[in-house]
Amino acid sequence: MLLFLAGCSGIPHPAIQTELEACPQQTAVAIAAEQNQLSFLTASHTLVCAINTLQKSHDLAIQRTALGSRLCLTLAEREPNQDKREKFAAEGVKFAEIALEQGGQGDGAVHYYLAANLGLKVRDHIVLAMGSLDRLENEMKQAVALSPDIDDGGPLRLLGALYLKAPAWPKGIGDLDKALELLKQAVDQYPNHPLNHLFYAQALWEEGDQTSLSQAKAEFVLGEKLLAEGDWGYNKQPWGTEFNEFAQEHAEIASPIK
Amino acid sequence: MRKSYLIMLASLLAPFSVSAAPDAEMIVVCYPGGSVNAKEANGAMSSMLRVVERVGQWQENSFNSVFLTKSDDCKKQIADNNPKFAITSLGLYLELRNQHKLVPIVQPKINGQTSEHYRVMVQKDKFKSLDELKGKTLGGTVLEEPAFVGKIVFAGKYDPASFFDLKPSNQAIRALRSLNKGELDAVILNEQQFGGLGSLQMDTSLEAIFTSEEIPLMGVVANSGSTSVEERARFGKALEAMCTDAEGKKLCELFGVESFNSVDASLFEPMVKLWANGQ
């Protein structure tokens, strides 16, 4: 039975659907205490149950953390359906906004998951996406400054990707030089994350000269290997799709991941 | 050519190829010197095209497109496919107009203007005139079309390829950073790039050592041999209505385009003469 649940934390959350009757009895405090066990390896149903519990919590100490936003991003990243993905991401934005309102400004993770969720929420809507560029950049910059090491260099990776893919100056904030610098840092400092290598490969590919193209190919192959050999749980498929799409666009870079 | 509105025009006509009808009309979108990730632009393209199709009362996905940033690729595409409509730079229009019977249909209006100036920027007080730049390095995205720069921007007075040491780039901001550091002697900018200089943090002051005459903005062109007057009029009307449509208005605002206006080929006659007389 699908139930339509709205948060009751005082600040309304968008709804997330789940099979409520199958959710275990749990408290927000217990979820927060065990949060390291909730990751891309966790089943979606478990994550949705946790989110529903967090939505109902009035615990300010939990509200000001990035936990709810992180769990929403974990779900959004693996969700192939656009509508559902955007709902998870929108919920993640809401969690992060509440965290900021409750005093979480100094927590880089809050800024990071806010930006990551916002990016997923707007990426398929050009007007919204263009209108969100400055906010995305600002939140990611704060995440880079406060907690660059979250999610294997996630802030560096996302800010680099933003500069890579946004419309270029003077109309937008897109900037290949900044993208290359940030993504180079990401692969140097956090070499175990496949997407650090994929995004760096994409930036090098944009650079276009022969040296960069050779480097791009090496980065792509390394990222592909890390993805194939690592235990990336539910992220393996969507990330594999990103690798495959890039390979299909640029057939010469590598053979697609099977 | 102001590049952002060219993206806007491109976006009007470049849907996801996978969603286009099998018999969709191919539109060639030429964006010489542009730094555009076609995949990333697809969202905008699809959105805009759907508006144009609705406003023009075409069936959804009536148009398909190909998006190109190299002049040579663009020329080949037009030669191979002989499209009914295309979005081109002014330089490509001037080069291909006779061969493909191209006629302009609409041009954009940006900041109240339907024309622009090009400028050659240098570090302040480093050079006194354009002649002093002989043999010096000149960068910029505009250099993807050196014939256009020579014949139209410099009105035939300078041949860029022989006068300068050309350093083309698809990154305007990178060229300007190089100018700032003294790695380039000069950078040529279009109007929009010039207008964006204030947003950049530069160590050195820049100044324009050369400003072109007014050059009309180019927009959508049609092949007058393969389109009827009615087809061109319908296409033009749809584009003119774009920025007054509720949804289309948001997209126009996003790209800084006030409106698309129908245009007569005679407006470009001075450019045609310069092109014919140029070096």
UniProtKB/TrEMBL annotation, chain B:
<feature type="signal peptide">
    <location>
        <begin position="1"/>
        <end position="20"/>
    </location>
</feature>
<dbReference type="Pfam" id="PF12974">
    <property type="entry name" value="Phosphonate-bd"/>
</dbReference>
<protein>
    <recommendedName>
        <fullName>Solute-binding protein family 3/N-terminal domain-containing protein</fullName>
    </recommendedName>
</protein>
<keyword id="KW-0732">Signal</keyword>
